[in-house]
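hiii so um. not sure if this is the right channel but i have a protein structure encoded as tokens and i wanna go backwards to a sequence. like what aa goes where. can anyone help
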């Protein structure tokens, strides 16, 4: 009996050794977008003030701590496989600002941020195939943002989106659907244009009214979101 136990211990030790030595480090493909689109970088933000006059600024303007201005630096789309399922990803880079000393409102600074949205195919198709005069509301169940530091890589935000989406599925959590963008296609001065707004500025517009303030860009420019890089 003692001999049998001795042999079992030796066998288990040998198996552990073999297992330990067989665990090689192999690089994986990591997180990356398939069919990544071109970058949308040009749009004009229009806003009608309380005095009835319209004012505008470029899409990548920064805040100054007094006038809160919605902005974006770039937009792009792509596909990402999450736990065996394919989803579309919308990535937005933009400027955020804050005071270094918020209590006394001094030393305002701006920093780049990236926000990612996981989209189902029907939401992506709504945005891609928007028709003249139509208003579409785009929703997402998984949203994540992070500052763009010196060592930021796109795979960082994709990894966090994948983890968050995967955890909700594993835990069986009911996902909260949030509106992330509203877009409207119109003809303005004989030009085919897209007007759109992001969720932080819905407080001034109803969800089916893109009239008081919005980004505006040519349809051809907007279609970069659906053209391979």
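sure thing!! here u go:
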């Amino acid at each position: 009996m003692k001999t049998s136990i001795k042999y079992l211990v030796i066998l288990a030790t040998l198996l552990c050794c073999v297992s330990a030595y067989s665990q090689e480090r192999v690089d994986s493909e990591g997180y990356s977008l398939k069919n990544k689109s071109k970058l949308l970088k040009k749009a004009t933000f229009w806003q009608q003030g309380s005095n009835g006059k319209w004012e505008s600024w470029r899409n990548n303007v920064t805040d100054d701590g007094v006038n809160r201005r919605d902005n974006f630096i770039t937009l792009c789309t792509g596909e990402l496989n999450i736990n065996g399922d394919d989803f579309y990803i919308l990535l937005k880079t933009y400027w955020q600002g804050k005071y270094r000393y918020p209590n006394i409102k001094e030393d305002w600074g701006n920093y780049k941020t990236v926000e990612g949205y996981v989209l189902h195919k029907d939401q992506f198709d709504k945005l891609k195939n928007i028709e003249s005069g139509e208003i579409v509301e785009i929703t997402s169940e998984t949203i994540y943002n992070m500052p763009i530091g010196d060592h930021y890589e796109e795979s960082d935000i994709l990894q966090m989106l994948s983890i968050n989406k995967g955890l909700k599925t594993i835990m069986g959590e009911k996902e909260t659907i949030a509106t992330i963008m509203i877009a409207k296609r119109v003809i303005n001065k004989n030009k085919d244009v897209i007007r759109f707004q992001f969720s932080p500025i819905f407080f001034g517009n109803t969800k089916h009214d893109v009239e008081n303030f919005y980004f505006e860009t040519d349809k051809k420019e907007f279609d970069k979101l659906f053209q391979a890089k």
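oh and The CA atoms of residues 70 and 201 lie 8 Å apart.
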